[in-house]
Specification:
The protein has 148 residues and is mostly helical. The protein contains 5 helices and no strands. Helix 1 (4-34) packs antiparallel against helix 2 and helix 2 (46-79) packs across helix 4 (103-121).
């Protein structure tokens, strides 16, 4: 049994972990720029740290959405008694319809889905920040049943 609050906390924790990772990467980059010799033992290049820094938010964005999707699939199966495995677009629409989620909340969740798809599969999509994604997805989860 999963509680809605647990699902929201799980999404929040991904964003918190991102903040820690971003700080650690920025600190490592700074330290390596000041003293490049610290990179010799782990055999890391400064360019790798910079690339990691540039891609970090996208990596955590995908993870954040994965946690959300996993919970949504549990809701679909356990709280709504469905045994199908629809694409995420249909899953969002179906859960929203059953829980009377307002259109603006559903639209924001779809914006996150579309941006996540662009990160994973390529293509163009309006950028959504990790903070906004967390807010939109937690708001959507807040409309789901209290227990599943």
């Amino acid at each position: 049994m999963t509680y809605r609050k647990q699902a929201i906390i799980a999404v929040d924790q991904v964003r918190s972990e991102y903040r820690v990772a971003a700080w650690a990467v920025a600190r490592s980059q700074h330290d390596a720029e000041v003293d490049p010799t610290i990179l010799h033992l782990p055999q890391i290049e400064l360019s790798e740290i910079r690339r990691c820094s540039m891609e970090l938010e996208a990596s955590y964005f995908v993870r954040l959405f994965a946690v959300f999707e996993s919970n949504l699939r549990q809701i679909w199966e356990q709280a709504m008694g469905r045994d199908t495995h629809p694409p995420v677009r249909d899953l969002l629409d179906g859960c929203a319809a059953r829980q009377a989620v307002p259109d603006d909340i559903l639209e924001k969740a779809h914006r996150v889905r579309i941006y996540r798809n662009s990160l994973v599969h390529g293509g163009e999509a309006a950028r959504v920040t990790l903070g906004d994604a967390r807010q939109y997805l937690c708001t959507f989860l807040g409309r789901m049943p209290p227990v599943w």
